[in-house]
Amino acid sequence: MSESRILLYYYFVPLADPQAIMLWQRTLCEKLGLTGRIIISEHGINGTVGGELSACKQYMRQTRSYPGFKGMEFKISQGGAEDFPRLSVKVRKEIVTFGVPEEIKVDNGGVVGGGVHLKPEQLHELMDENNGDIVFFDGRNAMEAKIGHFKNAVVPNTETTRDFIAEIESGAYDDLKDKPIVTYCTGGIRCEILTALMKNRGFKQVYQMDGGIVRYGEKYGNQGLWEGSLYVFDRRMHMEFGPDVKVLGQCVHCGEGTHKFYNCGNNDCRELILLCPECHANPSTNNCGKSECVKITSAINA
Ligand SMILES: [Zn+2]
Ligand SMILES: [Zn+2]
């Protein structure tokens, strides 16, 4: 069997003709047999694709041959085309949907006005310089933080990335406006935008975790300032940075420690919920807890 891989990448660069880039990328992926999801906008590209190792290598080479994408970095991880049911290459207004395409400015240096990038060791330096008085600000959906977050992080009340604007404009975080704030997300892309939006709204000392939780976890594992599991957007649902992980998640029914999200057993309910293996295996608790869902799942295997 031939080896296969997954490529994760994003790059902020002005693209005058996103439509042409989309057609080129789609043709390239089809030719190489890659599947996955690519979003292109006037601000750049964001993708996750999988396929044979040789095809992934060709994809990286050919994608970087476009002058605007010359500096693009790819994160290569285990997996392959089988992790994605199909290929989707789309043009959108934003490569991450904050709902403010007109506010985002991008030049050849990336997002204009974003927070200072911190490498994992620089985060620790910043921590020391401020005697530990820095604020971690979670740049993900609140659900993701249930199984893992930086120590004492502020977790905004967000169901989707679109909710951030209302959150940072709500006044709830105004006391942080003069403090050093470090935002973080899975791989860094959401913070590229979020930090610029925060600075535009009066947050003065804004930093972002370069490469996100993934890069920090690779460097410090569970021995640093990160606690718990990392929520990931593929069928694994979560990953850990070592065996000595703190279990932060709790089963919605019995409170047992868990880091595994499941879809509510009622197929019409799209809720993702934390369940322990036992409550997942039991029809009467394989649900989000809403009475309607309890009724439906209990009837499934009755
Ligand atoms: Zn349980
Ligand atoms: Zn439900």
From TrEMBL:
Pfam families cross-referenced by the UniProt entry: Rhodanese, Rhodanese_C, UPF0176_N
EC number of the protein? 1.14.-.-
- Top-level taxon of the source organism: Bacteria
Per UniProt, the enzyme's principal EC class comes to oxidoreductase
Q: Name one GO molecular function term.
A: oxidoreductase activity, acting on paired donors, with incorporation or reduction of molecular oxygen
What family is this protein classified in? Belongs to the TrhO family.
Task: Write the record's keywords in alphabetical order, separated by commas.
Answer: Oxidoreductase, tRNA processing
The task this protein performs is described as: Catalyzes oxygen-dependent 5-hydroxyuridine (ho5U) modification at position 34 in tRNAs.
Recorded catalytic activity of this chain's protein: uridine(34) in tRNA + AH2 + O2 = 5-hydroxyuridine(34) in tRNA + A + H2O
Report if keyword tRNA processing is assigned.
yes
**Identification of the protein by name:** tRNA uridine(34) hydroxylase
Show the taxonomic lineage.
Bacteria, Bacillati, Actinomycetota, Actinomycetes, Actinomycetales
- Alphabetical list of InterPro entries matching this protein: Rhodanese-like_dom, Rhodanese-like_dom_sf, Rhodanese_C, TrhO, TRHO_N
Domain Rhodanese, residue spans: 130-225
Provenance organism: Boudabousia marimammalium
Q: Which GO terms describe its biological process?
A: tRNA modification
